[in-house]
From TrEMBL:
Name of this chain's protein: Major facilitator superfamily (MFS) profile domain-containing protein
GO molecular function per UniProt: transmembrane transporter activity
Pfam family for this entry, one: MFS_1
Topological type in the membrane: Multi-pass membrane protein
Alphabetical UniProt keywords: Membrane, Transmembrane, Transmembrane helix
Cellular component, GO, one term: membrane
Compartments, record wording: Membrane
Domain named Major facilitator superfamily (MFS) profile: residues: 27-447
Transmembrane segments: 28-48, 68-88, 126-145, 166-186, 192-214, 248-268, 288-305, 339-359, 379-400, 420-441
């Protein structure tokens, strides 16, 4: 009886340490595939934003219709985000990656139909673009949610934040490539077919690598104690736990709002700057600096947090500094001939803002453990998409049309340029408000790290007892 009771108590432990942990070199291949998928999906999302005016002229559509090619990502990922969290935590990482790879590839190819003469719909070719973007938008939640799951299942605890940082930051890398590549490939509207063709190549490559190279749902032996419990909570149970978790709700609202603001910044940057006489190339350069500095900030902060485990302190400091940078950009962008200051403010905004992203995703897992990684990060992403849609609609509604502006470089002169003074100031104010709210009210324990520490102590104690028991 005593033996059965001991076995029952051992089974009820939140973490039951296996005999040993192990890492596999193929985890780096999985990380590379997820990175390529994430990068290509971001490229497809913002293909048209840096050349919005030329896209509108080429397809004979309004600027608002071009903006919908970006906004459809936000709208579709809201309902499908919940489906994606269930797929990731219930069906598995492999299925999620394969499904996202095929959706991403189908979307990139569908967009090409808009410029193929034998499939031409005349004035309705725009709908090929829209349907293609919808397929890519379905893939986005599966791709965005994968890094934390991949890091938890395949990487040891001292590499999780770094692996999550690398996989997560491949998304802004795709934004960077789109900001540089689209203006370079489309000096005139007639080059848009070339842009569509080149942007489809990474999606097709990622789909081939995922289909041929990913064969396992989980590693044969887990890399850490928490990996053994990665799927322990059923989806709906985990969802209820998250909705009752006050620190998680605060993190989801504040960090989700931050993602929404970065989405609007990336999608609307060209339109904000062209009204003050800045070229598409300069807007693309600012977008590139925004992303490159963000990648650098995320890399440095990811390495720091992996060593210090100071998740909360790091995110609070960076959130405040990114709010200050947003205020600087809002003021500077309202003046002409401020190229250097705009470049500096865009760089600072990216450096501090993007640095928060992978750390906040890890923090979401820490404050919600033992809820599955896909569910905890997925709900934040859904919140960010909802906030992003509201913010993008609000910002566009606050614009004022300015007719016959001699300084404007916007291509749609017949409609006049849009004055973005009020929208950028509102965005800076919202960013500052969320930063203050997060700093004051967010506090949590590191539940996953604590559980792993307890598990390690139990394992050491059991080993010590075993070593002192004489053999019979």
């Amino acid at each position: 009886m005593e033996g059965s009771e001991a076995a029952r108590l051992l089974g009820e432990r939140s973490l039951e340490p296996p005999a040993r942990f192990r890492t596999y070199r193929r985890r780096w291949f999985l990380l590379a595939v997820v990175c390529l998928l994430n990068c290509s999906n971001a490229m497809l999302w913002l293909t048209f934003a840096p050349v919005a005016d030329k896209t509108a002229a080429y397809f004979h559509i309004s600027l608002e219709m071009v903006n919908w090619l970006s906004m459809v990502y936000l709208l579709i990922s809201i309902p499908f985000g919940l489906v994606a969290t269930w797929v990731l935590d219930s069906v598995g990482l492999r299925s999620a990656v394969l499904l996202s790879a095929w959706l991403n590839m189908v979307g990139s190819i569908t967009r090409l139909f808009s410029v193929l003469k034998f499939l031409s719909l005349g004035s309705q070719n725009y709908w090929y673009l829209f349907i293609g973007q919808c397929f890519c938008a379905l893939a986005q939640p599966l791709i965005i949610f994968s890094p934390t799951k991949l890091a938890a299942l395949w990487f040891p605890d001292h590499q999780r934040a770094t692996a999550n940082m690398i996989a997560s930051m491949s998304n802004p890398l795709g934004i960077l490539i789109a900001n540089l590549l689209s203006p370079a490939l489309v000096p005139e509207g007639k080059h848009i077919p070339l842009m569509l063709g080149i942007s489809a190549v990474p999606a097709v490559t990622a789909c081939a690598l995922a289909t041929l190279g990913i064969h396992e749902k989980v590693p044969p032996t887990p890399p850490s104690a928490s990996a053994t419990n990665s799927n322990s909570q059923p989806f709906f149970t985990g969802l209820k736990m998250l909705l009752r978790n006050k620190p998680y709700i605060i993190l989801a609202v504040c960090f989700g709002g931050g993602i929404g603001m970065f989405t609007c910044f990336s999608a609307l940057l060209e339109q904000i700057l062209c009204e003050k006489g800045y070229s598409n190339d300069f807007a693309g350069l600012n977008g590139a600096l925004f992303t490159v500095c963000g990648l650098l900030g995320a890399f440095l902060l990811g390495m720091y947090v992996d060593r210090t485990r100071k998740f909360i302190e790091s995110t609070k400091i960076c959130f405040c500094l990114s709010a200050l940078a947003s205020i600087m950009f809002a003021v500077t962008s309202r003046f002409r001939h401020q190229a250097i200051m705009l470049a500096i403010t865009s760089s600072l905004f990216g450096f501090f803002g993007f640095a928060i992203y992978p750390i906040a995703m890890e923090l979401a897992v820490e404050c919600s453990y033992p809820v599955g990684e896909g569910t905890s990060t997925g709900l934040i992403f859904v919140a960010s998409q909802i906030e992003g849609v509201i913010l993008m609609i609000l910002l566009q509604a606050l614009t004022v049309r300015v007719s016959e502006d001699p300084f404007s470089t916007c291509a749609l002169d017949q409609d006049g340029a849009l004055d973005w003074t009020t929208p950028v100031l509102v965005q800076a104010g919202l960013c500052s408000g969320m930063a203050c709210f997060y700093v004051i009210f967010f506090h949590t324990d590191y539940k996953r790290l604590h559980a792993e520490t307890v598990s390690a102590d139990l394992a050491k104690a059991e080993d010590a007892v075993t070593a002192h028991v004489p053999e019979s």
